[in-house]
Write a structure and sequence with these properties.
Length: 348
């Protein structure tokens, strides 16, 4: 499940799992638990089964990012990956063995180590969409360590993210898996859960190179079912082995960065082409959405008030009175899950 924003992602689970409570997730997002959160496909944070962790690490796009890490490090005067692993990452992992640490502790450690080696430890940084640069560590290595399978997210403490070594959180494999086999397994898992999908969908979701996807599809070809679905493109699924088709719920409330929005290059299966910009905004924003019979009918924003939350619904098409009532009823269910009062207002 895409969990770029951890707290938002809880609502993605609620939208899919009957009777879901946040504790269902937090009870498994723990050392040696059933779930782990880390950077992986699409270069974003995902919550994945712990048993599949190494498939995502070795089969995902990490190898594609390595040249970028190397180029960025070189520009900042930091030596190659061998140096980074030996003199930055391994000492850091030794320091935090058996415990979770905050992002600030990671930064302080890296500044200290870089200074010890006579390297520039601080620099002016431009963060996200902020017009104001900040000063911080010239290198933290958190994302590179994640893609190398050394570090995972370990939740939050207040407003800060926590981090832990993958060996402590997930455990170490007896032997390192073969990356190509992991890529095949990763592509299989995607097709099983998202299919039928196109080659372009797989590339978009995984951020693998096209040649890697083609090789995985060739390995899987005996099991795959190919369809055209009234399109020039081929769609891949596992036919009878895929899960049975499920009728979409009449109303589904989805949070920001939901996996449905991020799972396909071709959005036409759930969103009109002329409304894509209403959902996918500037600075990589992916807005909250409301599905009616499996299709995006509105976006929504929330605002706290004295009694709870006010939800502003922005329809992408004219809504009938019964559709508005259905949306209000589903927000009543969402309010019960959130443990607060929610009033829905529809923009004209």
């Amino acid at each position: 499940m895409n969990s770029q924003d951890l707290l938002e992602s809880y609502s993605s689970f609620w939208a899919r799992v009957n009777g879901f409570r946040d504790s269902d997730l937090t009870s498994e997002l723990r050392p040696k638990g059933g779930l782990v959160r880390t950077w992986t496909v699409r270069s974003t944070m995902h919550t994945i089964p712990s048993k599949d962790y190494w498939v995502y690490v070795f089969g995902g796009p990490g190898r594609r990012f390595q040249p970028w890490f190397d180029r960025t490090a070189k520009k900042r005067g930091i030596p190659d990956r061998g140096f980074r692993v030996r003199f930055l990452y391994q000492p850091f992992l030794d320091r935090i063995k058996g415990r979770a640490v905050s992002s600030n502790e990671v930064k302080r450690f890296m500044i200290e180590r870089l200074s010890q080696h006579g390297l520039r430890s601080r620099m002016k940084l431009q963060r996200g969409w902020s017009s104001q640069p900040t000063h911080g560590p010239s290198w933290t290595g958190m994302s590179e360590m994640s893609y190398l399978g050394l570090l995972v997210n370990a939740g939050r403490k207040g407003s800060e993210s926590l981090w832990m070594s993958s060996a402590d959180f997930v455990g170490s494999p007896r032997s390192l898996p073969d990356p190509e086999e992991c890529t095949v397994k990763l592509v299989r898992k995607y097709i099983e859960h998202y299919g039928p999908v196109t080659r372009e969908d797989i590339v978009y979701w995984s951020f693998l190179r096209k040649d890697q996807v083609d090789k995985a599809l060739d390995t899987l070809k005996k099991d795959l079912t190919k369809e055209n679905l009234h399109s020039r493109q081929e769609y891949f699924s596992f036919g009878e082995d895929s899960g049975e088709a499920v009728e979409p719920a009449s109303v589904v409330i989805l949070p920001e960065f939901d996996s449905l929005m991020m799972g396909y290059k071709d959005k036409s299966r759930f969103l009109s082409q002329d409304r894509v910009k209403n959902v996918f905004g500037s600075f990589a924003a992916v807005n909250r959405t409301i599905l009616l019979d499996g299709f995006v009918a509105a976006t929504w924003k929330r605002k706290k008030n004295r009694s709870g939350l006010t939800v502003n619904v922005s329809p992408l098409r004219p809504l009938k009175a019964r559709e508005k009532r259905s949306i209000e009823e589903e927000f009543a269910n969402y309010a019960e899950y959130q443990g607060t009062k929610i009033s829905a207002e529809f923009k004209r």
